[in-house]
Structures are given as structure tokens and as C-alpha cells.
Design goal:
Elements lengths: L2 H24 L5 H24 L5 H28 L4 H31 L1
Length: about 120
């Protein structure tokens, strides 16, 4: 798989992740506390894909690295909110596990991409 194909597939994957997080957030109870978490997790989970799409259209290598770091941070934040939802007991771990696993994989991918682009910039 070349870089262009990888980028397209990761864009699709992050868009699917955004949809899954929106579906997850819709399952949260309709309480003031849950509405706050719903907003937070929806913003973070959908931001991963939006920022990755922007990274692929970056104006410079530095802009690309910055957007990738944002993707990494948003995937990490999404994971945090999933952990909070589980600990509060709003949804079972069984309901959350696949989204948690996907956020972990995306976090690892963006961390790796970020590190590799940082190393490349040091070599140039």
C-alpha cells in the first residue's frame, strides 16, 4: 500500500470512528452531567478525522506534524472519556470496548506518524 492509498484508508477509518463515537454518545443518559460528556466525546472523537483530513492537505511539513499531534491528542482524549463513561457506569464495558480499542489503535498510529515525521524533519 502506497502513502496515498494509506492516507485515503485512514481518512475513511477516522470518519467511521467519528460516526461510531456519535452513536456511542447518543446512548448516554439525558442528564446534565452526561450531556457535558456527550459534547466532549463527540467533539474529540470527530476531531480525529477532521484534523487528519486537514493534515493531508497541510501547507507545510510543520503544519502536517502539528495536525498529526492534534489527531493524537484527540484520540487520547476520546479514550479518556470512554474510560470515564465506563467508570461512571453509564454504559457497560462490552458496549464501549470496540470504540476504546479503535481509539487505542488510532492513538498508536498517530503517535507513530508523528514520531516518524519528527525524525524526518531532524534529518533534513
Amino acid at each position: 500500500m502506497d502513502n496515498k492509498e494509506f492516507s485515503r484508508e485512514l481518512e475513511k477509518r477516522t470518519r467511521k470512528f467519528a460516526v461510531q463515537i456519535i452513536i456511542l454518545s447518543a446512548k448516554l443518559p439525558n442528564t446534565p452531567e452526561a450531556r457535558v460528556i456527550r459534547t466532549q466525546i463527540t467533539k474529540a472523537g470527530s476531531s480525529v478525522g477532521a484534523n487528519y483530513r486537514e493534515a493531508n492537505r497541510a501547507r507545510s511539513k510543520a503544519d502536517f506534524r502539528n495536525k498529526i499531534r492534534i489527531c493524537e491528542g484527540e484520540a487520547n482524549e476520546t479514550q479518556f472519556w470512554i474510560e470515564v463513561i465506563a467508570e461512571v457506569g453509564w454504559l457497560s464495558w462490552k458496549e464501549l470496548e470496540s470504540d476504546y480499542d479503535e481509539s487505542s489503535e488510532l492513538l498508536a498510529l498517530f503517535t507513530s506518524i508523528g514520531k516518524s515525521t519528527s525524525k524526518l524533519s531532524m534529518l533534513q
